[in-house]
Amino acid sequence: MGSTQRARGHERRAQVAVPRSDGAAAAPVAALAVDGAGGAGPAPGARRGARRAPAGWVRRFLANGAGVVGLVGVTLVVAVALAAPVLAPHDPARQYFDGLTLEGDPLPPSERFLIGTDLLGRDLLSRVIHGARVSLLVGVVANGAAVLIGLVVGVLAGYFRGTVETVLMRLTDIMTAFPALILAIALAAILRPSLWIVALVIALVNWVWIARAIYAQVLSVARRDFVEAASALGMSAWRTLLRHILPHLVSTLMVFGTLGISTTVLLEASLSFLGVGVQPPMPSWGGIINESQSYFLDAPWLVVFPGAAILLTSLSFNLLGEALRDALDLAERR
Amino acid sequence: METATKANPKSLGRRLGAVTRLAAALLVVTLGAAATAQQGGRAVVSFQVDVSTLDPAIGYDWQNWSIIKSMFDGLMDYEPGTTNLKPHLAESYTVSDDGLTYTFTLREGVKFHNGRELVAEDVKYSLERVLDPATQSPGQGFYLSIAGAQEFIDGQADEVVGIRVVDDRTIEFTTSEPDAAFLHKLGLNFAHVVPREAVEAAGGDFGHQPVGTGGFKLREWVLGQRLVLERNPDYFEAGVPYLDELVFEIGVDPNVAFLRLQRAEVDVLGDGIPSARFTEVMADPVLSQQVAMGEQMQTGYVTINVTTPPFDDVRVRQALNMAINKDRIVRIINNRAVPANQVLPPLFEAHDPAYEGYPYDPERARELLAEAGYPNGFDTVLYAYNVAPNDRIAQAIQADLAEIGVNAELRTQAQSTVIEAGGAGEAPLIWSGGMAWIADYPDPNNFYWPILACASNIPGGWNWARYCREDLEERAAVADTLARADQAEQRNEEWRQIFLEIMEDAPWIPIFHELQVSMHSSRVTGPEGIFTDPMHIPVHYEYIRMAE
Amino acid sequence: MVPYLLKRLAQSVFVLFGITLITFLLVFLLPADPARMIAGRSATVATVESIRRELGLDRPLPVQYVSYLKGLVRGDLGRSYAQRAPVSDLIASRFAPTVQLALAGILFELLIGLPAGIAAALRRGTRFDQVVMGLAFVGVSAPQFVVGLLLIYLLAYLVPVFPLGGYGTPMHLVLPAVAVGLAGGGWYARVTRSATIDVLRQDFVRTARAKGVFPSRVVLKHVLKNAVLPVVALVGLDIGVFMGGIVVVESVFGWPGIGQMIWQAIQLVDIPVIMGGVLITALFVVVGNLVADLVYPALDPRIRYQ
Q1: pLDDT at residue A155 is higher than 60
Q2: Do residues B167 and B104 lie in contact, with contact meaning Cβ atoms separated by under 8 Å?
Q3: Touching A: which chains, 3+ CB pairs < 8 A?
Q4: Facing C18 at nearest CB: one of A174, A262, A294
Q5: B contact residues 139-198, partner A, Cβ 8 Å cutoff
Q6: Does B309 reach chain C within 8 Å, measured CB to CB?
Q7: CB < 8 Å to B139, chain C
Q8: pLDDT-derived band of residue B6, with 50, 70 and 90 as boundaries?
Q9: Is residue C203 over pLDDT 90?
Q10: How far is the C-alpha of A39 from the C-alpha of A24, rounded, in Å?
Q11: Helix count and strand count (H, E) for chain B
Q12: Could you tell me if A192 lies within 8 Å of chain C, comparing CB atoms?
């Protein structure tokens, strides 16, 4: 343990912009919630740098160009979602008779409709702006929940093994084969169609991916020497988990947490199509794509713009997350 | 006794435009003259959804309806491209004076695909099979008017006494009441003739091992991929079918099917032109030649549940009727329909061209709502089928209703769910599109009994408007007893009046009558009207042929 | 190993049982009446009721479930309500195409994702890394229907290299597999990259690199083996999930897979087909995850099972 302390101190003085050891780790999950309070308090080993830590990580973060881009992107999307009614040039539900050609086709971008109209003559820009709300909610919250559940299941199963592992992994099997579509339709019939059902079903179904990936990694990491040493030295299981194992998982969690935004937004569209989630005319990025996909070759703006919105959102979250992770030295380096 | 060697329910024939009748005449001539020269070839039809079954007693969906018609035959059929009824397997028929007994003389030498010659007993077997509860036939309800049918269904009788085999070539039907649509019902797929031995040999899987008398027989069927039919050389109608082979490709996305049509890999788009390409196609001088547009016996409408407040007030229902901008909705579907103001589509004699219906007048609609006590509108729910373009149409309706203060929460769901909600009487408003009523046969009563009658105002019934007027019901029943050909005009007048009165009550908002649009490759052709045959949708397969 | 396999086998039966039970219950919660769907729009109430009786849908749920299980044991999956054909026939006809697409899809995912992820990790922070990872995002964010349509339009229509959808030859398989591979490949690339980075940070690897020595082949092999662990997990899941069919890709390319069958069955409330489809999916999920679990020790010998 002592040698690693010295090694950590050495690195800190060198201000190398590589991930640090677990010393300065706040709980990785808390850092994923991008509320800027990443420094939830350095762990005991890094107390020496406590005074510098807040300023240090901010500086490191700002030095990372990609991270700044990500921050701007995320702020933009959130701002758009919050200010949608003010920002949108038209009422997103307003169907203009002259928003379609005489033959009933959508209009391409023009002065009046900046990125064109949709299949009902509604302004696409306004719909994309308003769609940010639904998509952000589903993409970030539902996906975030899935990541959280998956993390817990994967870690418990991979670390504690035995019966816990068996039960949890067979549960994973069941949930993978689980007919989520049917559950969604049934729920929508019993309760009323709502976004919360969508979020619930998505979280309920997507966690298996994170769980299996995390499980695989934990199986390997938990066997590494330093972990076995730690438990031999009597370190409690939870501490071991937090300090030695979790940091290895941060990167993977980051991937699922951000790429998953895209997948989730598109999945929401399928569920809403079945009458489970947002009902028309409430727009969502995935929904706009879903209803216009077959027009892709003739009215590409209907897919390109919402698609770009999805892409930019998940990309921004990813850039921001990775930059924060780097700045906070969250990931283990062993 | 009234005799007819060729059925002429004048009522229905007259509606067809002169062009179609001329085409029908030309067809007869061309068939007789140049038949052999045009035979041969292979055409491909694309469908997205799998063909479910080819059992005429069971098949009742978009894909298999016309395929079954080309593999099986019934006593009656329609002249190609028209709604004119004519005897088919029957050579001739007579109807008794009281209109209760129909006697058919069958053609000679009609063979099943397995080689056996058809006899009258086969006709009786086929109809009893449809009535038999074990078959679970969706068509059972059409033949309840045959005497003894109910007893047979209930297991009290071993046979249907109303169907009597006189001899091998003669069969006699007796109905318990005069049924003006009876001949039409004998033209339905459900009444097509099947051979007992093949049904029994298939052991419950006759739908995948069909044996009929039709122009095509089954050569190969790879489930989910491909259905191949080949010409029946022993078909009793001379000269048809033209094609040697007819291939149905399954699982093809309509957009991809369109691309394949351009490459001449597909000859007929079974699911129609994808809406995204429609405008482009119609604007293209070459492609537009390959498109055929025609009328259908179809109406798309919104049902209004007349038992649920506030819709129990006729003024509210009328207000809804005036709130919808039908021209805009028609434009949304690329003008592939004509706005509707009444129940029956124009193809029907009983359709009233002079009736103007409810105009698009949101002002007046709001006034009516206020009169009824809803000056600020109200909230309600609109159900719709989620498959395009119905979700769009429903949103357009929703927007129009919002204009007069009616805030309709839109629920776009799977077909089965919507049907369930409608059948349970829970849905205040339902856009029927996707399940919109296409008549089973070209008779006005088909637009009444299943969807507007007191008899279908039952849990699970398709009268989603929960509409019931006993007086109209009686008049409808009486109208249906006017079975003789010379009563046809009177009958149509009766129905015209009935439907006009229904519109006064406004249990529906008729939105449009969809046009049938089909596109074929330049490799195939056929007589005018074949590609928009109102009875054989999408195409009359027996009359397609290769172009020169 | 063998005792472990036997244990897993026993557990799998349990899992399958659980799935059938859950699905059965869910299906009956669906707001639809199969008897009415079969009876069609022109049926009388009597017809609907008699169909309900014929299909045994009027019996209490537990009775129906037990009857279904009994049939399963006999190998009888029932008959489709819509098509009246035996469910096993329907599944059998779609089995081979589904397997082909699943395997080919996974292959493309690996081909696209693994090299990209590892290369990006090795060149971390460079332009290459950023571009590759950006592309991964695009691959994941692009709706599969659009990707499929685009692939067909560009590579089968404008430039007729491949057939316009359909099934039959290896050429038919390429575009659908690529469509699957592009989306999944993006995932695999990113997951591989982060796992590789994590392994590269291990002391002995860093030591070698700091010394200027390019990590030896042995070290590289070690890196790869461990980096691939989470990907193996994903492949295991993909096996299961893909065998349940990939509806969107199947429908765009006209690929006769199980996905389309199940999707249509859900719309029509064709209960036997739904149950059959879920069962097949469950079977392969179990198999896929088992395969993944068996591969882990091969990659990392420290992992052991009791």
Answers
A1: yes
A2: no
A3: B, C
A4: A174
A5: none
A6: no
A7: 40, 42
A8: very low
A9: no
A10: 8
A11: 16, 22
A12: no
DSSP one-letter code for C214: P
pLDDT at C264: 87
Answer whether B293 touches C (CB < 8 Å): no
Q: Which pLDDT does position A41 carry in this prediction?
A: 38
CB pair distance less than 8 Å for C253 and B256: yes
Contact by Cβ (8 Å): C275, C68? yes
Phi, psi (deg, nearest 5) at residue A89? -70, -25
Q: A255: part of which helix (H) or strand (E)?
A: helix A246-273
pLDDT in tens, C277-291: 999 999 999 999 999
Q: How far apart are CA A276 and CA A57, in angstroms?
A: 43
Contact A104 B333 (CB under 8 A): yes
pLDDT of residue A4: 37
Q: What is the DSSP string of B184-211?
A: HHTTSGGG----HHHHHHHTT-GGGS--
Report whether pLDDT(B203) > 90.
no
Domains and CATH numbers, chain A: 2-47 (no CATH), 58-333 (1.10.3720.10)
pLDDT digits (tens, 9 = 90+) for A300-333: 999 999 999 999 998 999 999 888 888 876 554 4
- Cβ atoms of residues C81 and C270 within 8 Å: yes
pLDDT in tens, B134-147: 999 999 999 999 99
Work out the minimum CA distance from B340 to partner chain C, whole angstroms.
22
B240-249, C48-57, C295-304: least confidently modelled range: C295-304
What single DSSP character describes residue B177?
S
Which pLDDT tens digit goes with each residue over A175-204?
998 888 888 888 877 887 888 888 888 898
Task: Locate A270 and state its tokens.
Answer: 């399928």
pLDDT-derived band at A278 (thresholds 50, 70, 90) equals confident
Amino acid at A197: I
Residue identified by tokens 């395009």 is B388
Tell me the per-residue pLDDT of B142-191, one tens digit each, with 9 for 90 and over. 999 999 999 999 999 999 999 999 999 999 999 998 999 999 999 999 99
Considering only CB atoms, which chain B residues are within 8 Å of A97? 325, 328, 331
Question: For residue B156, with 0-12 CB atoms within 10 Å meaning exposed, 13-18 middle and 19 or more buried, which class applies?
Answer: exposed
Tell me the sheet residues that pair with B93: B4, B104
- CA-wise closest residue to B113 among B194, B43, B188: B194
> Are C227 and C196 a contacting pair, CB within 8 Å?
yes
Cross-chain Cβ contact A248/C198 below 8 Å? yes
Q: What Å distances lie between residue B320 and A244, B306, B311, B407, CA to CA? A: 67, 12, 10, 12
**pLDDT the model gives residue B31:** 53
- How far C281 CA sits from the closest chain A CA (Å)? 6
Q: B305, B366 in Cβ contact below 8 A? A: no
Q: Would you call C73 an interface residue with chain B, using a CB distance cutoff of 8 Å?
A: no
d(CA B55, CA B77): 18
d(CA B152, CA B148): 6
Question: Six-digit token pair at A166?
Answer: 């068996």
Question: Does the distance separating the beta carbons of C48 and B225 come in below 8 Å?
Answer: no
Decide if pLDDT at A5 tops 50: no
Q: Which residue of A has its CA nearest to B415?
A: A274
Could you say which DSSP state residue B226 is in?
E
Residues in C closer than 8 angstroms to A215, CB to CB, are 233
- The residues with which B2 forms a beta bridge, in sequence order, are B95
DSSP A241: I
Q: Could you tell me which of C33, C234, B506 has the C-alpha nearest to residue A216?
A: C234
- Flag whether residue C260 sits within 8 Å of chain B, measured between CB atoms: yes
Which alpha helices (DSSP H) does B208-313 contain, by range?
Answer: 254-262, 275-283
Q: Which of A127, A110, A131, A130 is nearest to A119 (CA)?
A: A127
Q: Which of A179, A216, A296 sits opposite C229 (nearest CB)?
A: A216
Provide mean pLDDT across the span C194-199: 84
One-letter amino acid for residue A62 of the chain? L
